[in-house]
Amino acid sequence: MPHEATLAETVREIETLYDPAWAESWDSVGLVCGDPAAPVRRVLFAVDPVRAVVEEALAWRADLVVTHHPLYLRGTTSVAATTFKGRVVHTLIKNDVALYTAHTNADVADPGVSDSLARAVGLTGALTPLQPSADDPRRGLGRVGELPAPMTLAAFAAQAAAGLPRTAWGLRVAGDPERTVRRVAVSGGAGDSLLGAARAAGVDAFLTADLRHHPASEFAEAGGPALIDAAHWATEWPWLADAAARLASAMAARGNTVETRVSETVTDAWTTTAQCEDTK
Fold first, then answer.
1. 2: pLDDT confidence band, cut at 50, 70 and 90?
2. What is the mean pLDDT of the chain?
3. What Å distances lie between residue 120 and 43, 125, 188, 198, CA to CA?
4. Looking at residue 166, what DSSP letter applies?
5. Is 13 labeled as ligand-binding?
6. Where along this sequence does the record place binding of a divalent metal cation (predicted)?
7. The dihedral sign for the CA sequence 241, 242, 245, 247
8. CATH superfamily of 5-105+237-261
9. What is the enclosing helix (H) or strand (E) of 17?
10. Are 224 and 199 contacting, i.e. CB atoms less than 8 angstroms apart?
11. Which residues contact 109 (CB under 8 A, 6 or more apart)?
């Protein structure tokens, strides 16, 4: 018979999917707040643990919020409600809402963040890690895959934009718009560190986020793949639906009744754009 899950049981299933041992040494993943014995009926998935997401969780009467980004990545000595993050903690605890983070352990999972990104922008068939994990080559950062048929860089960028959530500045593209694209690498979140891996993989294009001017310029000059730079939040958002579905399925297999939902709150940091005037 179905029974009500506890937070401890729910966390156990999340960590089966996204083992905390897979996280980078500098990362902060796991349970941030919450009573392990408390019941969990509703779980909200979001990219960022910010006030707007917490308000959405309260309105939906969620018992647990699972975010990709940590609340306290570098630790803290205070959770005073006078601070932005402290207010988040106070609000969650006062309303008996737990917070759990799956960050770099979800990045390298199989499937993980980049698998969802790859599917969102139209890659099909088998996906392989762009930078495999040392202890398990099936896992790792980024993914490499192929489009069903070749298309121009311009067409692929348009397809990717249509597959990702809308943001103020959309996508930035570096490369010949008429260049043929078939083999593509993607990486959710900041992908500067994977530029070399993308070149070595022999892909036609690399889609990621937070690319900086100098590395991108040097990469283009060296004849690397075309680059597509999306908003950080947008490249990680597709993972939420997959994570929510996988948790719901895992809990149902245990006889637990848990409802999951993907946050509708846009937490991209950039809210609008403005074009500079031509002074020539």
1. low
2. 95
3. 23, 13, 11, 19
4. P
5. no
6. 68-69, 107, 232, 236
7. negative
8. NIF3 (NGG1p interacting factor 3)-like (3.40.1390.30)
9. helix 7-17
10. yes
11. 17, 18, 19, 22, 139
Q: What are the domain boundaries of the chain?
A: 5-105+237-261, 108-230
Task: Please tell me whether 69 is known to bind a ligand.
Answer: yes
CA distance 278 to 280: 6
- Mean pLDDT, range 203-212, rounded to an integer: 97
Give me the mean pLDDT over the 96-113 stretch: 98
Measured between alpha carbons, how far is residue 129 from residues 4, 6, 143, 216, 230 in Å?
37, 34, 4, 21, 20
Please tell me if the domain spanning 5-105+237-261 has the same topology as the one spanning 108-230: yes
Rg (alpha carbons) of the chain, rounded to whole number: 20
Regarding the domain delimited by 108-230, which CATH topology (the fold level of the hierarchy) does it fall under? 3.40.1390
103 is in an annotated binding site: no
